[in-house]
UniProtKB/TrEMBL annotation, chain A:
It catalyses: propanoyl-CoA + hydrogencarbonate + ATP = (S)-methylmalonyl-CoA + ADP + phosphate + H(+); butanoyl-CoA + hydrogencarbonate + ATP = (2S)-ethylmalonyl-CoA + ADP + phosphate + H(+). Pathway: Metabolic intermediate metabolism; propanoyl-CoA degradation; succinyl-CoA from propanoyl-CoA: step 1/3. Its EC number is 6.4.1.3. It comes from Falco tinnunculus. This is Propionyl-CoA carboxylase beta chain, mitochondrial.
From TrEMBL, chain B:
The keyword Kinase does not apply. GO terms for biological process: lipid catabolic process. Its EC number is 6.4.1.3. It is found in: Mitochondrion matrix. It comes from Falco tinnunculus. Residues 1-425 form the Biotin carboxylation domain. It holds the Pfam family CPSase_L_D2. This is Propionyl-CoA carboxylase alpha chain, mitochondrial. Residues 599-674 form the Lipoyl-binding domain. Pathway: Metabolic intermediate metabolism; propanoyl-CoA degradation; succinyl-CoA from propanoyl-CoA: step 1/3. GO terms for molecular function: ATP binding; metal ion binding; propionyl-CoA carboxylase activity.
Length: 506, 674
């Protein structure tokens, strides 16, 4: 059985130093003697590794899902997981919960720290095999502990969510647990990156923890996020809707914008998360990571000379530009299926992580609307919070006109994008690929926001002559120029006036 | 030659290579050829405006158009090609054959003219002797050609061809002639001046064809002995002289297994495959054409024309060779690098990185020519050149070309025009890996994976929290390739990897430059150039190995995306289209992957998707219609070819997503059945 083998590996990894010899063959024979402390430790550990038991593990597998521990095994480097609170049990005594058959060492979440490509990460992984992963006071306490540690040490928190919701038997204790987690989500926000991967149900108040984190990823077909499920929806609004329609990965990555990306299955999601992690700094105290890069920073990109059509009305794919400029054509796109008129995501330039924002002429002419403004603004703020330089590719006809947009508050939402860019102090490099009807030019070296109307790209002189754009460059030299500028801007320092916090137009 | 040049181009070709190279460039119209490259009025206008003195028509479009040549002549502009008379004479199948007969050129026994009825067709066929070929005289190439092996097939062929002759060409004449079994297509390059001198510049063997289009050409032919060559050359020259031919031209022959050769047709222009002749003779044919057009006499005597070494040309097309040996593909060349670093390689191309391969023109990417002191050397270089050719963003036929040139029958010179359908009766399926090659592929892919994993831990600069480097020296992996899952163990040893596959140890060495499109790998001493086309976080890797690669486009939730893929490599969402899959996982992940849910694959029998980009010519069904299996549903035209799309099963039409006149992309949904 692969599962059992995998668990054994985890056991080896989690074993405390100096915990004494493991269970020997003599143990079974000495039945009368009460188990020694090392034996009891070993027994609890074995029980913890089995979570809700083999039956429930099998059921979890049948649903096409991995167990909490298997997920950690795939997410972290081999043998790097150090588990916390394996012996914590829930404290509920109502509804017969205090009977020993209702106690599971570690309760319904596995927590600890480990390494992803050698770099530190804190992890909690909800265990659906124990009371459906429901959140008890103890469960919340375990999560809070890793979050506190992560904030103190300065390392990201990754939550693997797979929980039926509040532990109904615990009532307010459970609800208070959510409040504790929410508070920490907020306190950690902007301090360490927080990533949520939804790998099963996540409903009711529980959804607000992922919603408070920086990134929410989902697993297609096996994960759901909603405030109220289809049954409640039916009884309140009389709508007929399935779980998948209401809160599946497709809904949240294309319609609601709640999730940032969806993956095919658990393995695909966890391996992608490892890759994603490499783009992130560990905390707001660390610079954007620089990876070893084989792609020459002075590489010319000849296709850029022809990619933008000469007719200003003809569309092209901004992703073509991004791929051709980025190191090794790699771009980790965030929210690829939502508000597609703006493209955001991470790439590397000469090894260094950058955040890329681009108008997408291929979709709605790349205009800005409510959804794309919010999508762009949130991404820009993440990058700024975590010292990730921003590269912006501009080709925008302006904001989308119409009553739907005006009534929806395009003024308020559009302001978020302006706010986020203006507030950002990280290096900012803007490349205007064709036109900026409302051209927002931020130059890293001065970082002053300027707005200038330029009627078309065919005539970049008005902006260039006034110094609003620094230079007019040959498209094929874009990569070279950006890499060069980033090197110079690496030492950029800029501070904002003292404030408690700014008041972004929410 | 110091001649200033003017390029003409269509809208979409404004950035084409020929436009950049010319001294001046003028746009002659929008993309469709009828409005640009075939638009004589516009072209004449440009000629007047730029005061061009001569026009080289290239090898497509108006190169064999007598009207164009006539109009140029009336304006006093030199047409760099033969006289109108020769173009006209050779453009007509029947007239050219008569001329050839009179010039004592061997012709295929047959009849050409108006055939009264099916009985007469049968009588003629019996006279000639079966098998016979029947087609409309006016039809070009192999279009509408039918082969009859008995009386009944003759009647059927007559019926079909005469209808087609009347409807398509408005010309009732039919051609019935001896059908040559196992023929080779060997052509003689001729060069003639306006002073009655004519030379034959040896032959080109062009037997490797698909749908009567040449794919691989070489010069000289392995098949000809000096006597046959001379006989063919002399007849070709006789024909050229008979029509007072000037400029470069090509006399095509069919050659049977007993070296009997028969005149096929004469092309009154430069041929696509002319570079192989240039390589072995040392002549620059375009330069000679210009000289002849100017009225200069030829500079060479027949005795001066050598055969130096051997040259091979592969036509590199943007097409998917896995569909009927090549269905056109379109897209942007996201990466493009010609193998010019390989010695003795010539690449004639009109595109560059970033170019669009559009539906408007022939999907040829380039002509790849290699040259050597002998055939083996030329072929070896071709193999290397193909491996080092980087083409991304569109499907291409490198895999087919490479398979052809390494096929034992080709290497022995045992070929005919039926080579492809004979060797691949069920269609081309890519390279068949030998056990050794499979191990090499697995070892290379696994090494690449580990090199990538190791690099993922390389962070530059000082880290506030130190990076805990893995002390691991051995990686246990599980690689899925096709239906097989192979345990592969990789251990690092300096810059090389020791890889255990199938209980055998292979040593894989490379510089492991993970950004370069070409990766030179040495596997147990054998050097291979591989190309990694894509990878993703889940271990899916596509590698071009021994030429075998496949590019396909898929619909995804992010819209149309181009997914480059390898045959021999994976594609998660439409695996059925590919022969192999390659996915690399750690052993642990591979063990857990058995719990992952199978995602339901799309039922492809009830939906019809466009197999290629093109224009919808006709839709023959509407929602609610009942169609039977094999019934035509719609017709897609792409690159001048009409393709009939048929129903994969019997059923009722649920929805029609296209209408006549629509432009569709590869993979676009056309029709759904219930």
């Amino acid at each position: 059985m692969a599962a059992v083998r995998v668990l054994r590996r985890a056991a080896a990894a989690a074993r405390l130093r100096g915990a004494g010899p493991g269970p020997g063959p003599h143990r079974a024979a000495s039945g009368a003697r009460p188990p020694s402390v090392p034996e009891r430790i070993e027994e609890k550990r074995r029980a913890a590794l089995l979570g809700g038991g083999q039956g429930r593990i099998d059921a979890q597998h049948k649903r096409g899902k991995l167990t909490a521990r298997e997920r950690i095994l795939l997410l972290l480097d081999p043998d790097s997981f150090d588990e916390y609170d394996m012996f914590v049990e829930h404290r509920c005594s109502d509804f017969g919960m205090d009977s020993s058959k209702n106690k599971y060492p570690g309760d319904s979440v596995v927590t600890g720290r480990g390494r992803i490509n050698g770099r530190l990460a804190y992890v909690f992984s909800q265990d659906f095999t124990v009371f459906g992963g429901s959140l008890s006071g103890a469960h919340a306490q375990k999560i809070c502990k890793v979050m506190d540690q992560a904030a103190m040490v300065g390392a990201p928190v990754i939550g693997l969510n797979d929980s039926g919701g509040a532990r109904i038997q615990e009532g307010v204790e459970s609800l208070a647990g959510y409040a504790d987690i929410f508070l920490r989500n907020v306190l950690c926000s902007g301090v360490v990156p927080q990533i949520s991967l939804i790998m099963g149900p996540c409903a009711g108040g529980a959804v607000y923890s992922p919603a408070l984190t920086d990134f929410t990823f989902m697993v297609k077909d096996t994960s759901y996020l909603f405030i109220t499920g289809p049954d409640v929806v039916k009884s309140v609004t009389n709508e007929d809707v399935t779980q998948e329609q209401l809160g599946g990965a497709k809904t949240h990555t294309t319609v609601s914008g709640v999730a940032h990306r969806a993956f095919e299955n658990d393995i695909d999601a966890l391996l992608n998360l490892r890759e994603f992690f490499n783009y992130l700094p560990l905390s707001n105290r660390d610079p954007a990571p620089v990876c070893e890069c084989h792609d020459p920073s002075d590489r010319l990109v000849p296709e850029l000379d022809t990619v933008v059509p000469t007719e200003s009305t003809k569309a092209y794919d901004m992703l073509d530009i991004i791929h051709s400029i980025a190191d090794e054509r790699e771009f980790f796109e965030i929210m690829p299926s939502y508000a597609r008129n703006i493209v955001v995501g991470f790439a590397r330039m000469n090894g260094r992580t950058v955040g890329i924002v681009g108008n997408q002429p291929k979709v709605a002419s790349g205009c800005l609307d409510i959804n794309s403004s919010v999508k762009g603004a949130r991404f820009v703020r993440f990058c700024d919070a975590f010292n990730i330089p921003l590269i912006t590719f501009v080709d925008v006809p302006g904001f989308l006109p119409g009553t739907a947009q005006e009534y929806g508050g395009i003024i308020r939402h559009g302001a978020k994008l302006l706010f986020a860019f203006a507030e950002a102090t990280v290096p900012k490099i803007t490349v205007i690929t064709r036109k900026g009807a409302v051209q927002i030019i931020f130059r890293g070296k001065e970082a002053d926001a300027e707005a200038e109307y330029v009627d078309k790209f065919a005539n970049p002189f008005p902006a260039a002559m006034r110094g609003f754009v620094d230079d007019i460059i040959q498209p094929s030299t874009t990569r070279l120029r950006i890499c060069h500028d980033l090197d110079v801007l690496a030492s950029k320092t800029q501070s904002s006036p003292w404030k408690k916090h700014a008041n972004i137009p929410l | 030659m110091g001649i200033k040049t003017v390029a003409i181009h269509s809208d979409v070709d404004a950035n084409a290579v020929h436009v950049k190279m010319a001294d001046e460039a003028v746009c002659v119209g929008p993309a469709p050829t009828s409005k640009s490259y075939l638009n004589m009025d516009a072209i004449m206008e440009v000629i007047k405006k730029t005061r061009a003195q001569a026009v080289h028509p290239g090898y497509g479009f108006l190169s064999e158009n007598k009207e164009f040549a006539r109009r140029l002549a009336s304006e006093g502009v030199t047409f760099i090609g033969p006289d109108t008379h020769a173009i006209q004479a050779m453009g007509d199948k029947i007239e050219s054959k008569l001329l050839a007969k009179n010039a004592k050129v061997n012709t295929i026994p047959g009849f050409d003219g108006v055939v009264k009825d099916a009985d007469e067709a049968v009588r003629i066929a019996r006279e000639i002797g079966y098998p016979v070929m029947i087609k409309a005289s006016a039809g070009g190439g192999g279009k509408g050609m039918r082969i009859a092996w008995d009386d009944e097939e003759t009647r059927e062929g007559f019926r079909f061809s005469s209808q087609e002759a009347a409807s398509s060409f408005g010309d009732d004449r039919l051609l019935i002639e001896k059908f040559i079994d196992n023929p080779r297509h060997i052509e003689i390059q001729v060069l003639a001046d306006k002073h009655g001198n004519a030379l034959w510049l040896n032959e080109r063997e062009c037997s490797i064809q698909r749908r009567n289009q040449k794919v691989v050409e070489e010069a000289p032919s392995t098949f000809l002995d000096p006597e046959t060559r001379r006989a063919m050359g002399e007849q070709a020259v006789a024909l050229a002289k008979a029509v007072k031919y000037s400029s470069a031209g090509t006399v095509e022959f069919l050659v049977d297994s007993s070296k009997n050769f028969y005149f096929l047709e004469m092309n009154t222009r430069l041929q696509v495959e002319h570079p192989v002749t240039e390589c072995i003779t040392g002549l620059d044919l375009v330069q000679e054409m210009i000289r002849v057009a100017k009225g200069y006499p030829l500079r060479h005597k027949q005795a001066d024309i050598p055969i130096n070494g051997w040259a091979v040309e592969c036509r590199v097309y943007a097409e998917d060779p896995y569909k009927s040996f090549g269905l056109p593909s379109i897209g942007k060349l996201s990466q493009y690098q010609e193998p010019l670093h390989v010695p003795s390689v010539r690449v004639d191309s009109g595109i560059q990185q970033g170019s669009d391969i559009s539906i408007y023109y022939d999907p040829m990417i380039s002509k790849l020519i290699t040259y050597g002191s002998n055939r083996a050397e030329a072929l070896k270089r071709m193999e290397e050149a193909l491996d080092n050719y980087v083409i991304r963003g569109v499907a291409h036929n490198i895999s087919l070309l490479r398979e052809v040139i390494i096929h034992p029958r080709f290497v022995q010179g045992d070929i005919s025009t039926k080579f492809l359908p004979e060797i691949y009766p069920d269609g081309f399926k890519g390279h068949n890996l030998t056990d050794l090659e499979r191990r090499e592929l697995l070892a290379t892919a696994a090494s690449l994976y580990v090199a990538e994993q190791l690099r993922s831990q390389q962070f530059l600069g000082t880290q506030r929290i130190p990076v805990a480097k893995s002390k691991r020296s051995t990686w246990e992996l599980s690689v899925r390739l096709g239906d097989g899952i192979y345990p592969v163990a990789v251990s690092k040893d300096g810059s090389s990897f020791s890889v255990e596959v199938d209980g055998m140890k292979l040593n894989v060495t490379s510089e492991w430059n993970l950004a370069s499109p070409l990766l030179s790998v040495t596997i147990d001493g054998t050097q291979r150039t591989i190309q990694r086309l894509s990878r993703n976080a889940s271990g899916d890797t596509s590698i071009q190995f021994l030429g075998t690669v496949r590019v396909m486009s898929l619909r995804s939730d992010t819209g149309l995306m181009l997914l480059e893929d390898v045959q021999g490599c994976f594609c998660l969402r439409s695996s059925q289209l590919l022969a192999y899959k390659l996915q690399i996982l750690t052993k642990v992940a591979a063990e857990l992957s058995k719990y992952m849910p199978e995602k339901a694959a799309e039922d492809t029998s009830s939906i019809l998707r466009s197999p290629m980009p093109g224009a919808v010519v006709a839709v023959s069904v509407k929602p609610g219609d009942t169609v039977s299996e094999g019934q035509e549903i719609c017709v897609i035209e792409a690159m001048k070819m009409q393709n009939s799309m048929t129903a994969a099963k019997t059923g009722k039409v649920k929805a029609v997503h296209c209408k006549a006149g629509d432009t569709v992309g590869e993979g676009d949904l056309l029709v759904e059945l219930e």
